[in-house]
Design goal:
The chain is built from 13 helices and 16 strands. By secondary structure, it is of the alpha+beta class. The strands form three sheets. Strands 1, 6, 7, 8, 9 and 16 form a six-stranded antiparallel beta sheet that branches. A five-stranded mixed beta sheet has the order 4-3-2-5-10, sandwiched between helices. Strand 3 and strand 4 form a beta hairpin. Helix 1 packs parallel to helix 4, helix 6 crosses helix 7 and helix 6 packs antiparallel against helix 9.
Amino acid sequence: MALFNSAVNPIRYGVILEIASGSVLAAIVRSERDTPHPDLIWSVREHVKRTTEHDIEVSAKGVLTALMNAMLAVESEGRNTLKTFDKTATLKHVQVSITAPWSYTISKVINYTEANTFTITSALIANLMEAAQKKIAEELKENELASDLGLVIMTRATTDIQANEYRTENPVGQKAESLALTQISAVAQTYITEAINDIHKKVLPHTTIERYSFMLLFHCVIRELHHYTTEYCLVDITDEATEIGIVRDGILRYCTHAPRGISTIARELATVLGLPIDEAHAFLREPYYSHALGEMNAENRTKVQAVLTEYQSAITDLFHETGDTLSIPKVLFLHGGFQTETFFTEQIALAARAATNSTHNIHPVSTELLTEHYTSEQKQAIMEGNPDTAILVAAAFFHKQHHCNDFIQV
């Protein structure tokens, strides 16, 4: 195991990979310590072929093909672009994030109390970490889904330590009556991680690799950008899944997902409206969605509403699974596909209202939000290209390696 803290070298070049449910993102970034943001040098997103039928095994094979194509693009176009940017640059790091349904994020809080004041030691913290790991391992062992799919823990993150219910970054040596430690494990399907390791050894053998769930990255980046907000719900929508993470007191407490996403809705719309699959995908974008809906006859509008109601119902059920007795927080951060933010903001707002009988503040994780510290010229360059927010989330995490404290690669 290797422990990752803050950067050692002032400048780092790395490859970012995001393995989503229907595509793979690859990017090359430059990170310089003590600067507000990284440089985005090159990127590509390889999509799985769209069809009106969906099969999880076929989808998984499509994602692995997209992964290989993305890595080949890194070796050719990516390296050439990097050489033009800096002919002395060397790629030394690979950061992989995996979304639902290929990954799962499990959070456990371990509490320790004594009647009398005690001194916090490294050994005590290590014991609490071990207890958290045992709980997560037991949960995976008992989980029928885990045994069927063959899941493996990729990364463990100690994201929060509280002494006497106050967060602390330097607990060792402090006096306390209670201590709480939060550990998150990023878990992924074995055949995905094996494919990643195999491609890494073949294409980028001289780089170090770090693997995370996308929800872990998402949590860390929002926690950094909105450190004053401590109660919120994270929503990540990909082609075939909608994943949520519940954050309370700044701690990621619970994650779950539904196997329904952008492509799921597009396939259903293609079926009920008799549209080509690509046109159904375009239907979810504004201003096309509002215009097309307005031009429809009553029968087709009813069909569309039935599809959307089914999605909203699935997400409402998801919002009831908060992992505690409370309803979802009032604030939601929504990360979704490019050009579908407006559409899904409406769907998620309706699902949240159905779950809680109240309105929620939904903040799309937009390019504007993620480039807050970029110069106007850099923002313009990003907007003129293909502003893929997943790149910006992953690059921000790469730039701030120590976002949530200590990360242990398994």
